[in-house]
Amino acid sequence: MTSVLTPAPTAATSTVDLGPAVALSCRECGSRIELGPYYACTECFGPLEVAYEFTERGEALRKKIEAGPDNIWRWASLLPVPAGIADTPNINPGQTKLVRADNLARELGMKTLWVKDDSGNPTHSFKDRVVAVALAAARELGFTVLACPSTGNLANAVAAAAARAGIRSVVLVPANLEQQKILTTAAYGGTLVAVDGNYDDINRLAGQIAAEQDDWAFVNVNVRPYYAEGSKTLGFEVAEQLGWRLPEQVVIPIASGAQLVKIDKGFQELIDLGLVDSSEYKVFGAQATGCSPVATAFKAGTDTVRPVKPDTIAKSLAIGNPADGPYVLDVTRRTGGAVEDVSDEEVIEGIKLLARTEGIFAETAGGVTVATLRKLLATGQLDPEAETVIFNTGDGLKTLDAIAHVVGPTARIAPTLAAFEEAGLA
Ligand SMILES: *Cc1c(COP(=O)(O)O)cnc(C)c1O
Ligand SMILES: [Zn+2]
């Protein structure tokens, strides 16, 4: 592998099989380069994304998908992954539950609400999707180590996927990360580096290491175009689970913003390929106020996302300089949605509300999403009558500290019936 910015054609890259993916194209100037370990445009330094030539469509494609494996690889025809991917060691995430949230809907005065519950993935967050695709592409591109800078969940997913694949992992996390995320990553046995810095510092460091280590795939840096495609499957699954149609409104948490942008891309591909009828939908983004550069830009009506220094309990969303921020603004404005932000107190209320009404215990990112849904309703930005899907992207067991001071036993008693009755628990 040569430098990221000078894609010299090599035997390795000219023969890559990444299924329907045919090239990388620049999201700014549209220029194309061959598939390879590149992420920045040689012409304008803009970010690259995967370009496809889909050969199947409509009813035939739908039948093929429906007959596919009960995991992310049922979407292989629409992803940058080699043929035969389903039989290659990987963590095989996806096909998580779409839960009809009638109790929460009633409480919020909504008509139809669903929770796409991605805490059901192998390492309990949506990051398993992006890592599964990144691992598949990284292998095909000849990388031998799987690495990442992470706000926590990505570290879990990379360490687990590398373990399953039998390759080395190297993950960099902020030293002040939740203990649960550090321990659950360390359990998989890869190299785990706690860095005294915030995510944006670590991301910069990862870029520097990637430039030195030719055979390390930093999933969200040098193979980012492939990685990001994994999030399309959240959109694909929601559409199939609704009976091959799109919802009218979606609420999605934002860190780098890639997930939100790719769920929209997934919806567009389903329309283009004739898998769902074309219908209008609004995309809403959710941030914690302590790290809300995209919400700030949305409300100011500008295209410029100004970096911030994060300060929020929603650590999985604490990216102060979000790579996809401008594209989030494009998607939310184009569809008639919005980007809103909520305080840490509202995040905690959001976690408790979802747990109490639907029996789903979300991490802080899910709390951000539920609280943002509530705020969008209260401010009249989101229509309570329109069918809505919110995305719970991670598991509350990984962020217990966030709620440890607000939940606990109802009572503590001696082991006697008298004590139970005295405590007024019957
Ligand atoms: C990383 C993460 C997100 C946001 O992902 P982006 O694609 O970077 O916007 C949302 N929720 C959880 C739980 C995450 O770990
Ligand atoms: Zn370009």
TrEMBL record:
GO-annotated molecular function: L-serine ammonia-lyase activity; threonine deaminase activity; threonine synthase activity
The keyword Hydrolase is annotated on this UniProt entry: no
Keyword vocabulary terms for this entry: Lyase, Pyridoxal phosphate
Taxonomy, superkingdom: Bacteria
GO annotation, biological process: isoleucine biosynthetic process; L-serine catabolic process; L-threonine catabolic process; threonine biosynthetic process
Cofactor: pyridoxal 5'-phosphate
CDD domains: Thr-synth_1
InterPro entries: Ser/Thr_Dehydratase, Thr_synthase-like, TrpB-like_PALP, TrpB-like_PALP_sf
Positions bearing N6-(pyridoxal phosphate)lysine: 127
Family matches, as Pfam families: PALP
EC numbers, comma separated: 4.2.3.1
Name this protein carries in UniProt: Threonine synthase
